[in-house]
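Name: ATP-dependent DNA helicase RecG
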Amino acid sequence: MANDQQAWAGLGPQLAGRLAKLDIRRPQDLVLHLPLRYEDETRLTPIAAARAGAPVQVEGEVVSCEVTLRPRRQLVAQIRDASGTLTARWLNFYPSQQKQLAPGRRVRVFGEVRGGFFGNEMVHPRVHPIEAGEALPQALTPVYPTTAGLAQSALRKLIGRELQRPPMTELLPAPLPGGLQLPPFAEALRTLHQPPPDIDPYALEDRAHPAWQRIKFEELLVQQLSLRRAYNARRTRRAPILRDNGKLTGALLAQLPFRLTGAQARAVAQIGRDLATPHPMQRLLQGDVGSGKTIVAAMAMLQAAENGFQAVLMAPTEILAEQHWKKLAAWLEPLGVGIAWLSGSRRKKEREAELARLASGEVLLAVGTHALIEDPVALPRLGLAIVDEQHRFGVRQRLALREKGADALHPHMLMMSATPIPRTLAMSYYADLDVTVLDELPPGRTPILTKLVAESRRDQVIARVRDACLGGAQAYWVCPLIEESEALQLKTAVETFETLGAALPELKIGLVHGRMKSDEKSATMAAFSAGELHLLVATTVIEVGVDVPNASLMVIEHAERFGLAQLHQLRGRVGRGTAESACILIYAHPLSENGRARLKVIYEHSDGFAIAREDLRIRGPGEFVGARQSGVPLLRYADLEGDADLVEPARALAERLLREAPEVATQLMERWLGGREGLLRA
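Structure predicted for ATP-dependent DNA helicase RecG:
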């Protein structure tokens, strides 16, 4: 290891900094930095036989090389072999390149041939000066992910040097679970970094080759190990024991105007059992839009209150937090249970009064936005922390909420999400969580008809809104998502509000957007809920938590700009009453391939889990779970959909190693993560 450190120390801070951008921080990280693709420099093509559009390598003598100034400054060289002549052209070049290409030099050039004005040419080919008769490489040439200022040649040299050291130890036991037949680790690495010329290039490119399978399996195994370790570490921590004595929870059930669905009753029982254990619960409650997660959360909060402990519910937006607070207050205040409401926009006096009641323990329950994790909030008897729409919060925010509890005891954590997680994703990214699924909707939810309408038919949509509202219904009109600028989004919302106002003078129309003052937003929402407004023009602030049973029509403009989860969430704002409901998705041409795929999925599916599976297929897992902020080690090589057959064996082996060979588990994690286990506690 001392030699390794010396070799690493010899790189210099600039090169070490560039490697760190690629997450290469130790010499052994170099061999785990695998190629994106390969180029075949093991063979030569005569210039006359080079076909346009194909990357080839030719060898010849430089006939001429000069800098021309028309049509722009460029370096142009003529290279000749026995079969013909080829033009090589560089639009950006260094003086050293001109020296490399002095007339009479023998060179190999690699690049894509294309037809030029004066015959075949290569633009920006790679040049390798050689001596006559020099041997060709014996392996395909790897092309690595790199960063500005770090050339492929430098990266290849560093990785090649590391591959000459004694090979990495084989750590996996034999036989592997599930009858997997995979090559040894060192052999797989050598095959991927230096593939022989007779290897199947397609199996390498699509990562189906056994060498790739071996690397992907070990990566999945390490991810399972790190998550199971986090899970096991949690079992050693102490949490308050919150038994369900049925006093408050029973009283709430008795006064509800509806009965719990079977799925809700199962969820309440599972969570209730977890809260009664001395270890911190870490459970994900996922259920489709409208499946009734709030009542499950209310029952859990009451179980904490019955035991004299505090429970808080944190939501990502003020509208959603306020909806939760109003709903919970309506259920709990008749039982004599007070509930505090904390948000950044509350008046200072009101806020200070709520903080004092929480700090003294007079109030046991609270609902709020990010304001809950700000410093002045003291929760001396925090027993349960609930995070709604948990993927909207970063790891640090979730940790900050947990750390509000008394030091000796860890609060129980319940995370809720209406973005269902496909099974393979839950097994992999959430292996440290227990998962509860609400897989049935409460009775009375009406199916929602989804329609796709081109922008050219906007007038027909406006007429449909007029008819619906004059017939006694209410409608939402959601403005497009504009990634580039919140100000631009605001402008669009205001313009849409004015346009619809002019087109529909007989309707009362309201506007809500993210830049409005909180009390203005609340007043508009309250007026819409009370039926005083026919139509609500909004940005995506209404995506979650808005519940107006009389609203039965939703129009989403530029639907192709929204993600699938967002479209499904927005659509779930209607169909909450008994009236037939519809969601109209207005789209603009031309549609990108992804945009078309998303609209097809939302049109064909109403089940959130089916939509989530399709979303995973279209987008890939990293973006889906917000993994960049989730603290979970991202998978660099494995693909959860494509490699789903490796997840189960990796999980089985992870449990076996932790039980029978914990020292091997530690070595594997050190190899891949190097102490970077991320914020797995969250």
